[in-house]
Amino acid sequence: MSTKHEKILQYIESLPVGDKISVRQIAKEMQVSEGTAYRAIKEAENRRLVSSIERVGTIRIEKKKKENIERLTFAEIVNIVDGQVLGGKSGLHKTLTKFVIGAMQLEDMMRYTDAGSLLIVGNRIKAHENALRAGAAVLITGGFDTTENNKQLADSLDLPMISTSYDTFTVATMINRAIYDQLIKKDILFIEDIYIPMTDTAVLKNDETIHHFQKLNEQTTHGAFPVVTHQNKLVGMVTVKDVIGREENELIEKVMTKNPIAGSMKMSVASAGHRMIWEGIDLLPIVDDDNILQGVISRQDVLKALQLAQRQPQHGETIDDLVKNEIKVLGDDELIVEFKVTPQMTNQYGAISYGAFTTLLAEVGSFALKRRKRGDAVAENMTIYFIKPVQMESTLTVKPRILDMSRKFVKMDFEVYNQQVLVGKAMMMFQLLER
Q: In this protein, which residues make up the domain named CBS (predicted)?
């Protein structure tokens, strides 16, 4: 049984792309309070089903798949550049394939401008018109306006005309940054990308018996099931181990594990995988903020998703990627790591940032543990000392040393040198993840 919140989200998703929606309209259509409608619309915005634009309203946009997430809608462009829509509002849901900077002669400009493009240009009225007729949207920089004829043309062609107070270079930088951020998001898989929805999930009710478990086990061959109330609220998990030696008429709620570990839609797949390995579970229930079951993921789903992500050809580089790219392993017996500090890793004073330094030590520690065949590990806590500032373009030498190791924890000491001068020390504790 779906909640009011879920029904509103399903209704929004069923609306045609480009439709305008409002809190009042949703509240009236779905017969709910305006507060409930507002919360559902904000959730739809988080799920990238709608986009809200100042002075325009909220419009239904196409939900993006992972393979084309780096393509932005014109509605998102408006928000990125803090723009004003001059015309073509009904086309804001469309995605742009490329953007063209209009810093050339009109004829040359039009050679690069085609359908699906976004022409970024100043107050060149003829260029605005020609771009629209070529099927491209227009972003006017410097806060300039355009003619009424061009606005009417944009409305008739459903091609947005947007004005922003920023200059052309700044706008291009902002859009590039947004696309780059999208590429990073594309590389990070979330539970919502891979989970098995509630409609396809085998579940048991808390007032059913072990006999029902055995029947469901025969039908599906699954060894674990979420246990829910009749309102689909998650109350437990039951596995084959829980029912061994029990009577068939015994209630599920008597043998289930109460308050089970659960995940959310916004949890990363990598995080879910680590947690499942750490806790020794094969099936993770996925719930919303009200603990209503949304679906499940299995350990096999996680492994397949991570393998798929590694095969994706495009990705955006995070600070972790930048640090890993600069790590060079030296020495066969004793592990020594060489590392170059690039400008992206520095703070406002030109010295290596705390975040980059921490990432470097965590990566070196993980590498040292893998050399000892201890598998994956996560840094639990750390104490770091900067003895001397480390400037950009410096080449560091990192020497890790394992102080103590148990079945689940490792304590490690680090010394960091710059041209044989000690510049930093650290003590870190790692949690070992069960394989």
A: 197-254, 256-318
Q: Which of 246, 276, 309 is the last residue of a domain?
A: 309
Are residues 164 and 122 located together in one domain of the fold?
A: yes
In this structure, the number of other CB atoms found within 10 A of the CB of residue 241 comes to 10
Cα 219 to Cα 54, 286, 299, 356: the distances in Å are 52, 22, 20, 51
pLDDT band at residue 70 using 50, 70 and 90 as cut-offs: low
Adjacent-strand bridge partners of 95: 73
Residue 65 is predicted with a pLDDT of: 53
Give the pLDDT confidence of 232-255 residue by residue, as tens digits: 899 999 998 888 888 889 999 899
User: Is residue 118 domain-shared with residue 137, that is, in the same domain?
Assistant: yes
* CATH number for 272: 3.10.580.10
Instruction: Indicate the residue type of 247.
Output: E
Q: How many domains are contained in the chain? A: 4
User: What mean pLDDT is predicted for residues 20-37?
Assistant: 87
For 45, the domain range is: 4-60
The verdict on 291 and 328 lying in the same domain is no
Q: Is residue 113 part of a domain?
A: yes
Query: How many CB atoms neighbour CB 211 within 10 A?
Result: 14
Give pLDDT tens digits for 170-225: 888 888 878 777 666 665 678 887 888 888 888 999 999 999 999 988 888 888 99
Q: What is the pLDDT of residue 68?
A: 47
Is position 252 within any domain? yes
Closest CA to 326 of 312, 343, 340: 340
Q: Is residue 23 a part of any domain in this protein?
A: yes
